[in-house]
Amino acid sequence: MAARSEWRILLALWLMVFSASSQVVIMAPILPRIGATLGIGELEQGSLITAYAVMLSVMALVAGPVSDRLGRRLILLVGSGAMTGALLLHGVAYSFAALLAVRALAGAAGGLLSGAAVSYVGDYFPYERRGWANGWVMSGVAFGQIVGIPAGTLLAGLADFRWPFLAFGLTMALATLLIWRYVPQPPGVRSELPLSLRNVLRRYYELLRRPTTSRSPLVYFLMFFSIGLFLIYLPTWLEHTQGFRTEEMALLFLIGGLANVVAGPLAGRLSDRIGRKPLIVGATLGLAVLMAGAPLLMQSDLTIYTLFALAMALVGMRMSPLQSLLTALVPGARRGSLMSLSIALGQLGIGISGVAAGWLYKEYGYLSNALLGALALVLMALVVGYGLPEPDLQASVGEG
According to its UniProt record, where is this protein located (predicted)? Predict the structure, then answer.
């Protein structure tokens, strides 16, 4: 019975992660279509990414302490319900201003959800099983690339760019129902600190003052900053230089998603055995090398598909070990605050990369995006390798 309850929880969180991540990633392949439909250029397209990321960052800073005090279940329910509404509002976004507004609303809802799933796994599962659990939950991101992104890309090409968001709104509504039905509040992990602006600021100050926990947000910032630089204008570059069509773009994300969905759970389970840091550092450095060389090597369909699949596999290899590592750095009553702070800085990285990538792409070409992204990954590997401890795999520090 316990095993069945665990799988129901993982399914609900998986569907939430699938829906939330798909509605973000779909922006990259359909960004040129959005630009053509609304008559906006590269800089305005990048601002759609930035608006979402900035609102997510702000709301995540609020949601973390609230989830520590009131519980993860409440935040998961409110966040998934709010995301459902925001995604359905995309159906009436017929101007750049309207789309910018609904992307900001979706970002606010995403801020509520940002660290909730990872924190919940940290609360519910012991440390020696968190790599496995996080691997399955985060495979929702990869499944989005396999099914959600290709289907959404084709749907945007056949109908309208708004339709993928409406479809993900329906899957998020189902996730909300599953969370309400099957995801309980884990006992014994709530903070006793009263909710107030002063207490929230003090909690974040304490996290930033400690060397170990202050490095976690930096790791997330560098990770998402690099991915934004690499991914946001990759479809645009492939269209302009390789003549990629909608169907080929959908196939690209399908292949990348397959690589990610295989690598993620395997890496999570392996990290439960050998430790988190070797996989995180190795995958990050490997991705840096690939990212730097991709614009020079992606000269045929075979190399494009192969290198993108390898890149997505490396992304999957580091994600669940990294999340499992970070959830062990603080006790459960502070876990939501740390994860929300980290993800807020990560989304700030995405927001900055959206603006920077658009300017770099326009002024210097896609190679400049990839090289700066690779440099950020090297810095991330150094911070993880020398700045974060590797907890004992037999220790379960989630309660306290």
Answer: Cell membrane
Position 80 scores a pLDDT of 94
In CATH, the architecture of 2-180+199-387 is Up-down Bundle (1.20)
Residues 312-332: b if buried by 16+ CB within 10 A, e if exposed: bbbbbbbbbbbbbbbbbbbeb
Cβ neighbours of residue 372 closer than 8 Å, sequence gap 6 or more: 229, 356, 360
> Where are the extended beta strands (E) located within the chain?
none
Angle, vertex CA 12, rays to CA 155 and CA 22, nearest 5? 30
Query: Which long-range CB contacts under 8 A does 303-309 form with residues at least 24 apart?
Result: 304/238, 304/242, 304/252, 305/251, 305/252, 305/255, 308/252, 308/255, 308/256, 309/255, 309/256, 309/258, 309/259
How high is the mean pLDDT of the chain? 83
In whole angstroms, what is the distance from residue 254 CA to residue 236 CA? 17
**Could you say which DSSP state residue 18 is in?**
H
pTM exceeds 0.90 for this model: no
Residue for token digits 């665990």? 6
Break the chain into its structural domains and give their ranges. Answer: 2-180+199-387
Torsion-angle region of residue 275: left (phi > 0), alpha (psi -120 to 50) or beta? left
The C-alpha atoms of residue 85 and residue 295 are separated, in whole angstroms, by 38
Closest CA to 338 of 126, 176, 135, 189: 189
The whole-number pLDDT of residue 398 equals: 37
Residue type, 343: I
- Amino acid identity of residue 5, one-letter, is S
Residue 125 has φ and ψ, to the nearest 5°, of -105, 140
242 Cβ neighbours under 8 A, 6+ residues apart: 298, 301, 304
In contact, 249 and 32? CB cutoff 8 Å? no
Q: According to the 3-state scheme, what is the secondary structure of 226-238?
A: HHHHHHCCHHHHH
Cα–Cα distance measured from residue 258 to residue 251, given in angstroms and rounded to the nearest whole number:
11
Instruction: Give which of 387, 60, 44 is closest to 210, Cα–Cα.
Output: 387
pLDDT tens-digit map of 25-37:
888 788 888 888 8
> What whole-number percentage of the chain has pLDDT above 70?
92
- Rounded to 10°, the helix 197-209/332-364 angle is 70
User: Is pLDDT at 288 greater than 90 in this prediction?
Assistant: yes
Q: Is the dihedral of CA 67, 72, 76, 77 positive or negative?
A: negative
